[in-house]
Design goal:
alpha/beta, Rossmann fold, Alpha-Beta Plaits, 40% helix, binds adenosine-5'-triphosphate, binds magnesium ion
């Protein structure tokens, strides 16, 4: 017994390391990816990675190269150069393994309008080799998860855009993938359905699913994504957490003040010593400071020493729109 104990106990830390080793780490590695359509380069030298358990956002305007990237990552188009490895498998050499690992929810609906919701899911499940009782059970579980169990037997052609999108998400999950690609899943749907889809993505992610999410809505990227890659004209032009992105745009975050009365010219001159720039319009001041939060207390002290009354104060957190504007000189949405 005494001899046995050490042999039973010693493997434990190693065993735990093995379990957690498979849960942590990187699922998707994209290196120097290029995708061309004839001579036009839609994706230039794109590199990023996605950690297991994270929601990674590819944020970019129309035509940025989001869907082209997703198509390559889904084995639907071949890369012209670069490499993509998903859960240890190369997307060109080991397509069968890759296809088992990923679930795809394409930008355009991929559903049969004449089939019911259940029949669609059963159809996609069969494509992935699921059969028998498991097939129907899985389809019903997913219909419940996306909130459409009561509509199981209705033809998908009668569904709203938001409902179709939820069925498409369920179809992408039939084979229990480790990672889900969602290509602009909320475009063209009503706000209520959009809310349901965003909440569904959060729930799926909380249950352990890794997600690659493309969007041109910065507020979605801000709400959902642990890390964001900003893509424009086929290139990733910035990458990081929301906080890192905000830091990147921090210098341009304005402080807006509404005063009871305009400041005198001499007072404005004094205030200018505390910040980089002031735009004064009647009794409204917009101030730009390198570190707006730090500058704020000094500004308020000085205004109080002038006897000025502040009616309203706004300190906007710089958002991804500001980051994009700063990096490209253009707005994310035209
Ligand atoms: N099959 C194709 N043949 C030729 N050019 C294409 C093809 N598919 C996409 N492109 C071009 O490649 C560029 C990137 O397109 P892509 O669809 O990847 O962008 P996107 O970021 O998904 O845009 P959106 O937000 O509009 O969906 C665009 O200039 C587009 O016109
Ligand atoms: Mg697209």
């Amino acid at each position: 017994m005494a001899l046995l104990m050490p042999t039973l106990e010693t493997p434990r830390p190693f065993f735990l390391l093995m379990i957690y080793g498979t849960m942590l780490g990187v699922v998707l590695v994209v290196k120097n990816l290029q995708k061309r359509y004839d001579k036009f380069i839609a994706v230039h030298d794109v590199s990023f990675h996605v950690q297991r358990g994270e929601v990674y956002g590819l944020l970019g305007p129309n035509g940025a190269g989001k869907s082209s990237t997703i198509r390559v990552l889904s084995c639907l188009a071949k890369p012209d150069s670069g490499s993509v490895v998903i859960d240890g498998s190369d997307i060109v050499q080991e397509q069968a393994k890759v296809k088992r690992t990923i679930g795809i929810v394409p930008q355009d609906f991929a559903l049969y309008d004449d089939f019911s919701a259940l029949e669609n899911l059963v159809f996609f499940g069969r494509l992935y080799g699921i059969s028998g009782r498991d097939l129907k059970i899985r389809a019903q579980e997913l219909l419940e998860a996306v909130g459409l169990l009561e509509r199981s037997h209705e033809a998908v052609g009668t569904f709203s855009g938001g409902m179709k999108r939820r069925i498409n998400i369920a179809a992408g999950l039939m084979h229990k993938p480790k990672m889900l690609y969602l290509d602009e899943p909320t475009v063209g749907i009503d706000p209520q359905s959009r809310r349901k889809i965003l909440d569904l993505v959060k729930t799926l992610n909380a249950s352990g699913l890794t997600v690659l999410y493309t969007t041109h809505y910065m507020e979605e990227a801000e709400e959902l994504c642990h890390r964001i890659g900003v893509i424009d004209q086929g290139k990733i032009i910035a990458e990081g957490t929301l906080a890192q992105m905000r830091q990147l745009a921090g210098e341009t975050a304005p402080i807006r003040l509404e005063l009871r009365e305009p400041l005198a010219a001499s007072q404005l001159e004094q205030l200018k010593t505390l910040v980089d720039e002031i735009i004064a319009e009647e009794n409204t001041l917009t101030l730009f400071a390198r570190d707006p939060k730090d500058a704020l207390s000094g500004i308020l002290q000085m205004l109080s020493s002038f006897g000025a009354h502040v009616h309203h104060l706004e300190l906007d957190e710089p958002d991804l729109e500001t980051v994009f504007l700063k990096l490209t000189g253009r707005r994310l949405r035209d």
